[in-house]
Amino acid sequence: MGRAIAKAVAEGEGFAIDQEHADVLVDFSSPAALEASLERAISANVPILIGTTGLQPELKAKIEEAARQVAVIHAPNTSLGINLLRQLVEEAASRLGPNWDIEILEMHHRGKVDAPSGTALLLGQAAAHGRGKLLPDLARFDRFGEPHAREEGTIGFASLRGGSVAGEHVVVLATDGERIELGHRADSRMIFARGALAAARFLVGKPAGIYTMQDVIGAL
Q1: Annotation marks residue 133 as catalytic
Q2: Of 7, 62, 112, 133, which is the active-site residue?
């Protein structure tokens, strides 16, 4: 992602990479490095865009603490297409009743270490929100072991890993006799880089607080 963002900066207008005097800090590193990035953003009093996934609750709490002092976006996926998909998933889940089963399938390259992906969880949260629920109450990640029937209203997840797949997500809504599939396929990491630059531009000058990619889309 660092190389992709550097390429997007070189190809775009109005952006430059400055390690010492930046207007926005962009972090796509790792959970272990995130705390240092948050401290740097607070020390420099600049907004921070966080694209790192696989975060434990204690790091999410630190993000909330940082947002009291600087503007923050934590985006598991910075693709504008994925974040529009999130809105469509929430809309579909809100309009279709619990007799429509929801399953989320994601596939990524063999080197991705967290599963389900942060994007799959983002889409699951959108579906749960559409149903007026919280994802932890509905999510089902493991169907191995003793046989059991699907529980009505739950949201199932499946993760595939292989090759060099940049990212593929499909949300399936299925009921008797019909099925809706809402999906997104990333053919290049450049889509995430361009979305990250759009989010960075949005953050400049914003007061402290937590913002989302939906805020970015709304401002386009």
Answers
A1: no
A2: 112
Percent of the chain with pLDDT over 70: 100
Cα maximum dimension of the chain: 59
Cβ(45)–Cβ(18) under 8 Å? Answer: no
Domain boundaries, the chain: 2-74+189-219, 80-186
- The DSSP code sequence of 132-196 is TS-HHHHEE----SS--PPPTT-EEEEEEE-TT--EEEEEEEEETTEEEEEEEEES-THHHHHHH
Instruction: Identify whether 62 is a catalytic site residue.
Output: no
Question: What CATH number labels 80-186?
Answer: 3.30.360.10
User: According to the model, what pLDDT value does residue 76 have?
Assistant: 84
User: Could you read off the pLDDT of 28-43 as tens digits, one per residue?
Assistant: 988 899 999 999 999 9
pLDDT category, 12, cuts 50, 70, 90?
Answer: confident
- Nearest-10 Cα torsion for 207, 209, 210, 213: -10
- Over range 74-78, report the average pLDDT: 90
Q: Which CATH architecture has domain 2-74+189-219?
A: 3-Layer(aba) Sandwich (3.40)
Q: Which of 7, 60, 74, 108 is catalytic?
A: 108
- pTM of the prediction? 0.78
Say if CB 77 and CB 191 are below 8 A apart. no
Give 90-108 pLDDT, tens digit per residue. 999 999 988 999 999 999 9
